Each structure stands twice: as structure tokens, then as C-alpha cells.
Amino acid sequence: MKYLLLLFCLPMLLSAGEIHLVNGRLIQGDLQWHKSFVKHGDQNYDLKNLLRVDFEKPLVDNEGEYIIFSDGSMIKAQSLKLDNKMGHLLINYRETELKVDLAQVSAFSFQGAKYPPKNTLPGFLNLNDFYNAGQVSYFTRSMLGQTKPQKNRYKKSMLKFLYLKSWENSTKEFKVFTTSREIIFAKIIEVTNESLKLDTILGSVEYPLEEISAIENLSKFKALNAEQIKNISYTPFLTQCKEMTYGNSFTGSAVEVGGFATKDFWSIHSRTNFDLMVPKGGHVFSTILQLDPLVKNGNIQFLIQQNGKELINVTMAGGKEKKIRIPVKMGIINIVVDYGQGGSAGDFLLMCKPRFLLEK
């Protein structure tokens, strides 16, 4: 018995991974949980002082039903039954039946962990991208019902999304990613040898440490917003350059970063030129670049300058995501998404998770 107790007192080895520090440094290697800290070698790191920690773990297949809540959280769960009188939805989450307030639900994805298109009216989107506006009236394990403006029945297996309303930015401190492709905005209550206890939109929930894929500290950066973007100019290669848009791809594709759904991205067509205002305390600009998932022939030059000095110049021509993280000074940085080879055909860039890291 004493050996068993000793085993549980030792730090728990999770996996290889990465620790992202607020100063822009990246630490790679084997990571352990030690009490409420993440440990690398002899150094303990408090989650409250980190930007992000990633654990290299396989993700489940991207299929099945996911529920998206009003704070943007996305969980892998099955809707069962709607109590219209009380406004409660019965769901099966992690083999437990729970009642959730339907007013807290934003949407349902029935074909894996995906966010629906933004700015959509309440309604149903089927596998052929046919949209039918209306309100849901009942749920079963396999069906949905609609009574307004007309009566309809839908098999969940034949739907992409049921959209109820838009979601708002969460005020929670952390964003937690699980191996089930879940995204959970939360406050961390407690870390034990076996689990992470979180305060979520569902209340207090415990997640096994072995299922934690990543944790992001939302207080350590300022996400890019439209007010920071200035002096946008468009130069068509021939006849058209699409305007920058947030949260929707030009081809209507669902977008992922690192295997997880995201709506935090800007779609940009070449040639687009714009300035970004560096916020107070911002000292590093970070983003993840990729081409639109349906693009086959795009070739783009991505250039960042500040005070006439080139900070980075990369070519995007398909393939993997490219992570950008560069030091910046207070003031303005200029970004150019330019034509590469072959003009602007297919030059649909996704600038994902653009943000400024904040100094302590």
C-alpha cells in the first residue's frame, strides 16, 4: 500500500508537449502535472502565468453531435429531449444525463466539431447546404422537429447544423481543449493527480488529465478586433479583390486550427493592405496562417512591416499551417497579403487567431 501511495504523490507524466511563455519563448519536451503546476525538467510553471500549454495527444475522430453554447464553448454531447414549458434540454454528456437551459445554447453541429457560419438566422442547414429558417420544437436521440413557420421533421444524420442564436465572447480566464475536440471556456477550480476541475457554463465539471489537450490563458493576450484594423486598401489582380471578413471563409468552409474548430479568423484575398494598431502592453504579434480549406491553387506572399522595416515575409502555397510570432513595438504594423505566383486566383488566406501578447 505504501508504494501505491508513493506512486500517487509523484508528478504525473502526461506527454511530450509545448509551453508558451508570455515573452514569446517556446519550451518543448516532456511535461508533467505537479500539484497545480505544469512541470518541465526541474522548473514548475503556474498556468496563471503562461500563455498556453499543449500536450501531444491524439484526438478522437471528428464526427457526431456537438453542442455550442452562448459563450462559445463546444462539447461533445447528445441532445435527448426538450421541455418546452420549462425551456430545458435534456442531454447526455460523458455518460451522465444533464438538464441545460436552452437559452444558453447557441447551435448544434451534427457532423463533428464545427462552428456554423456566423450571422445566420435561426434554422436548419442540411447536408446539401439547403437552409430552412425556423424554430426547433422537439428533440429525440435521432430527430428534430419544427413547428414554425411550418411543420418539418429532420433526421440529425441529414443535418449539418441547427442554429439558434449567436454567441458572445466569454469572460472566463481559460480556454481548455480536450481530446474529444471540445473547447471549454472556464475558470480552473482545482488540479488533482487525476483530474482538472473547471467552472464552466454547465457548472462545475471534472475532466481527466489524460483528456486535456491544451490550455490557453485568455488574460495574457488581446485578440485582434475590427477597431484595431485601419487604412484597408484593395488592389485587384484583374477585376476583383474580396473585402476582408471575420469568422466566415470565402468558400463557406468550416475552419480548424490544430484539429480544433475556430471562428477566430480573418479571410483575406490578395492583394489587401492594412494597418494594425498595437494595443497598450502589446509586445508580440502572433497568428496562424493557412489557406482556405477548399483552395487548391493559392499562392500568397504575407508581409509584415513596422516603421519601414520588414519583420517577416513568408509564402503560403498550401500545405500545413504556419505559425507567426514576431516582436513588435508600440504604434502601427502594416500587413500586406500579396499575389504570389499565378495572380490572385485561389489566394484566399485565413489569418487565424491573430493577437497581441501582453507584457506583465
Automatic annotation (TrEMBL):
The keyword Signal applies. Keywords: Signal. Residues 1-16 form the signal peptide. This is Glycosyl hydrolase family 98 putative carbohydrate-binding module domain-containing protein. It comes from Lentisphaera profundi.
